[in-house]
Structures are given as C-alpha cells and as structure tokens.
From TrEMBL:
The lineage of its organism: Bacteria, Pseudomonadati, Bacteroidota, Sphingobacteriia, Sphingobacteriales. Belongs to the IPP transferase family. The keyword Ligase does not apply. It comes from Mucilaginibacter polytrichastri. Monomer. ATP binds at G12, P13, T14, A15, V16, G17, K18, T19. This is tRNA dimethylallyltransferase. Catalyzes the transfer of a dimethylallyl group onto the adenine at position 37 in tRNAs that read codons beginning with uridine, leading to the formation of N6-(dimethylallyl)adenosine (i(6)A). It holds the Pfam family IPPT. Keywords: ATP-binding, Magnesium, Nucleotide-binding, Transferase, tRNA processing. The record marks S103, R125 as: Interaction with substrate tRNA.
C-alpha cells in the first residue's frame, strides 16, 4: 500500500446518522464500508442493533455486518487483525475505504492498534464473576469507577464482561486497563481522515427514543425472546437485550423495560461522545446541516 490510500472514519454516537453518511461517502468514492459497530457483527442480533436495512446494505458493499455468530469468540484484537487484512485487499482496488461505527475501541484498533494486554490469572476472573453474581452489576461499576475513571467514562457500563475485563487487568497488574491502550501507536500504511457526527443533545436524544420505538414495533421483543437460550453470550450482554431479559424474568414490566432501554441508550451515547471528544484528530459535523461528502473531499485534498 502507498500513501495515496486513505481510510475515512465516520464516528459518533448511536442514532446520529452514521449509516446514511457512510453510504453517501461510499457511493461518492465508489468504495466499501467496514462496520466498526461491535454488535452488528453478529447475525442473530438485527433489530436490537439497528443494523442497516437490506436496502441500505445493497447500496454499498459492507463488511463486518452479519459476519459472525454470537457463539463465536470475536474480540477487538481479532477485529484489528481481520480488519487490517481486509483493508490490505480493498486498497488494491480502491484509493479510499470507509470505516463507520460507534465503537471507539474498535476504531482505535484499526487506526492505532493495541498494546498487548497482560495474561490474567484465571482465579481473578472467577472471583470477579462471583462478585457479579453475589453483589450485582452496580458493585463492579463502582469498583471500576475508582480503579480506572478514564475507562469508566467511556465503557458500556451495562456490559459486565467489559467491566470484568478491565478490573481483572487492574487487579492482576495494578495498572489501569486504559493505560495499556495508549503507549505505542502503530504507524499504518495508509492515511486516516476522521469525521465525527454530532448534533444538539436534545435532538440526538429524540432520535434515540424514536429509534427504540421503531425497534419495538419491528419485533425486537420477539428477537430477544428467541435469543434467551444464548443470553450468557458476551454479545448479548448489552443495552436493549439486558432490559428485555429482565422483563422475561419478571423483574420488570414491558413499559418499564422500554423506558430503561431508552435511558440506557442515551447514557451510552453520552459516553460515546466523551470517548470521541478526546480524539483531537476528529473533524466534527452535523449530518443534518452539513454536507459530509463536501467535507470529506476537503479533508482528502488538504
């Protein structure tokens, strides 16, 4: 690959309009889109992850959507390896490729790489899992907030697997999980241009609420019900499914579960923005009022 190859990153919080913007860019540059949404990889989860519709998927080549099963072990390190291999192929026939999504960690993996995380003694993981069962999610959330406030501000705190991963690294090394992701930025053999999508918070929150209502209307409850046998899979320990599993268990009613999905998704969007705002290389735009294609052209011609 050479330096006239460019990866255009389209980042931003959930429901901000990344899919539409990425498709516009892909059509403009006649290229493909890699999804950096850590939940859209899984083919069994469609409604609850707001995957692009069949029409949208047909509008441009997409990769890493429906690429894996929830029973597969697929983490951010695997994504880095597979994603770079794919980019290597795509850059043979395209000068520009799009990477779009809201999972900051996955975008970072492709753009900068990771330090190798230390191996953790299995007994620490077992103990943290026991604490989750005995003392609940809030206990682990508080523990992580004290141990690693940087990671706490950006992680999906409703995903126990992510909390445990960060805590086990901290407890086995004494160093915060966040410190392992910053030491060595790997030089990539392509240029990187980052566009962040944002809008006034009230507008974003309205879009999130509307999107949840649409998901429910499209059959998200049935989808979650179908996935109940796999509820222990890491992919399903996430906003939207967690709340519905509580409803199936009789811990809450459906109306409350839907309100909680909206609330937790809004909180998640806020944490996504916290994460992306730390990246000073991102150029921000409002997808409703700004011309994203024109902005990308301008950035590419700099």
């Amino acid at each position: 690959m050479d330096s006239n190859k460019t990866l255009i990153v389209v980042a931003g919080p959930t429901a901000v309009g990344k899919t539409a913007a990425a498709i516009n860019l892909a059509q403009h540059y006649n290229t493909a889109i890699l999804s950096a949404d850590s939940r859209q990889f899984f083919r069994e989860m469609s409604i609850g992850t707001a995957k692009p519709s069949p029409t949208e998927l047909a509008a441009a080549p997409h990769y890493f959507i429906n690429s894996h099963s929830i029973t597969d072990s697929f983490n951010v390190g695997d994504f880095e390896t597979e994603g770079l291999k794919l980019l290597d192929e795509l850059f043979k026939t395209h000068d520009t490729v799009i990477l779009a999504g809201g999972s900051g960690l996955y975008i970072k993996a492709i753009c900068e790489g990771f330090d190798n995380l230390p191996t953790v003694p299995p007994e620490i993981r077992v103990r943290l899992n026991d604490e989750l069962i005995e003392k609940g999610l809030a206990f682990l959330q508080k523990k992580l907030a004290n141990a690693d406030p940087v990671y706490y501000a950006e992680v999906d705190i409703h995903n126990p697997q992510r909390l445990i991963r960060a805590l086990e690294v901290f407890e086995s090394t004494g160093n915060p999980f966040s410190s392992y992701r910053t030491a060595n930025t790997r030089q990539r053999p392509f240029n990187i241009v980052k566009i962040g999508l944002s809008m006034p918070r009230e507008q974003l929150y309205n879009r999130i609420n509307e999107r949840v209502d649409i998901m429910i209307a499209e059959g998200m409850v049935k989808e979650a019900e179908r996935l109940t046998p796999y509820r222990e899979a890491n992919a399903l320990k996430t906003v939207g499914y967690n709340e519905l599993f509580d409803y199936f268990d009789g811990r809450t009613d459906l109306k409350t579960a839907i309100e909680l999905i909206k609330q937790h998704t809004r909180q998640f969007a806020k944490r996504q923005l916290t994460w992306f705002n730390k990246d000073k290389t991102i150029v921000w735009a409002n997808p409703i009022t700004d011309d994203i294609v024109e902005l990308a052209d301008r950035l590419l011609n700099k």
